[in-house]
User: Fold Outer membrane protein assembly factor BamD from Flavobacterium hydrocarbonoxydans.
Amino acid sequence: MKKIVSLLVVVVLFCSCSDYQKALKNEDVAAKFEIATKMYEAGKYNKAIRLFEQLAPTYRGKPQAEKLFYMYSQSYYKTEQYYLAGYQFESFVSGYPRSEKVQEAAFLGAYSYSKLAPVYSLDQVDTVKALDKLQAFIDMYPNSEYIPQANEAVQKLNGKLEKKAYEVAKGYNTISDYKSALIAFDNFIADFPGTPFKEDALFYKYDSAYQLAINSVQSKMEERLNVAKVAYNNLIKFNSATKYKKQADEMNARVETDLQKFTK
Assistant:
């Protein structure tokens, strides 16, 4: 019995492949569309894509075009070809604004771009683009069933930008470019007020101000020591029991000692 079932499976697969190969060369677009639909429904998305590519130019404006372009978009999405999926879903939304699939297509189009966003350490141009797309979806369909997923994706993308901005600021501190570090940390804290990296950012901002101050020329030292003192106070105000307290207190003692030289 098992041998018979296995044989039947092989026969079905062979016929399916044979039908697909014929469809690729077939000029009958209706027959090609039927096979493409079967490939799509069977989860053979790459094969479906090849047929949809052939059908797309001739099906625009036809009654079944909406179904075709929806399946075409989904096939790219299912095969993780997110750039092409995003493009096709956007085209679907533009071409079929009254479709019952329009909200799903609009969400998946925006979500596809979020899949292209790289790790935080790389350039974040695609991350910003994805955020713009998702925000446009949220603004357009504020009551959509896809809003929770869209908001979750936005949160993850913002997390990448947040981590990137923090690491850039910390990088300036690491290479002793303390002026740039101070500016970068100020911008980071302003842009991400609720960041989990705030304590770290406040400390490294203080460290940058401290290093800049104690290594200054005499004419600029007093002003920079006072900037460092403010940065220390901001760190302690944020968390009086900060994990950096011992180091920060030792640095502040040096700041206070050096400041006394300017009051005599």
